[in-house]
Amino acid sequence: MSTASHRPRPITPATTVALALMAAGITVWLGFVAHFGGMLHAGPEKAAVQMPDRLAVVRVEPGETLQRLAARVAPDAPTGQVAARIRELNELDSSAVTAGQTLIAPVG
Questions:
Q1: Once rounded to an integer, what is the mean pLDDT over residues 46-61?
Q2: Are strands 102-106 and 55-59 parallel, antiparallel or unpaired?
Q3: Which residues contact 74 (CB under 8 A, 6 or more apart)?
């Protein structure tokens, strides 16, 4: 049998501070990974995609929806964002468009 004492050692204030600093460091590191991790995996094609700055008057083609118009006039930009911008620029209450209608749209 061992004759060593089995009493737990008291946790010192220095140990508490060291553990708190280590937990804070891990939390900050995880925050950086969460914030910048998506950018590392996005790739150059996602980083370069943005809304076109140039505007033009476009005509709605027969059978075309607002989403298809957005994809046609700005094929490299996110279609939903382009469609929303067209609605905003033309003060449209809905997504409904008619053939022959002229609209201001971001193009590029």
A1: 82
A2: antiparallel
A3: 51, 52, 82, 105, 106, 107, 108
